[in-house]
Design a protein that fits this description.
The chain is α+β, with helices and mostly antiparallel strands and 135 residues long. The chain has a single domain, classed as 2-Layer Sandwich (Heat Shock Protein 90), CATH 3.30.565.10. Helix content is 33%, strand content 30%. The protein contains three helices and five strands, in the order βααββαββ. A five-stranded antiparallel beta sheet has the order 1-2-3-5-4, with helices on one face. The longest helix is centred in the middle third of the chain and has 21 residues. The mean pLDDT is 87.
Length: 135
């Protein structure tokens, strides 16, 4: 594995999703990562980014920064946004009833990742996502 890291900063809008996909692919290609591990981080990261886009209010005013990194045996994403405080306990997220129309994103992300943390830092939401490349 070769170390690689890239970032993008953009308004949290649906249009940013393509740039995030490209960012993940770029780091994965440079680091020569296996597709199944890339798919785990990509799926989880896209769920978190989609939540930022959906719940960041008002629309088009939330800024988001995404860093994707492969180093030290980990494939990581850090998603930072200046949206409203998120009230979530990631240790308590679970899949909703099968008839529910939403609420699966964070639970799915938690199942895919070896590391999944949220913190509020200086008026920013910071999501830490990681896949252990040794597993």
């Amino acid at each position: 594995m070769t170390d690689a890291s890239h970032s993008v900063t953009a308004p949290a809008t649906p249009e940013c999703l393509g740039a995030i996909h490209q960012l993940i692919a770029r780091v994965a290609d440079e680091a020569e990562l296996p597709e199944e591990l890339v798919a785990r981080l990509e799926s989880a990261a896209m769920e978190v980014v989609a939540n930022v886009v959906e719940h960041g209010t008002p629309l088009n005013t939330v800024q988001m920064s995404v860093t994707i990194e492969a180093s030290d045996g980990w494939f990581r994403a850090v998603v930072t946004d200046d949206g409203p405080l998120v009230q979530v306990d990631l240790d308590q997220v679970s899949m909703p009833d099968e008839m529910a129309e939403g609420g699966r994103g964070l639970a799915m992300a938690a199942r895919l990742l070896d590391e999944f943390r949220y913190e509020r830092r200086e008026r920013h939401n910071v999501w830490h996502l990681g896949v252990d490349l040794a597993r």
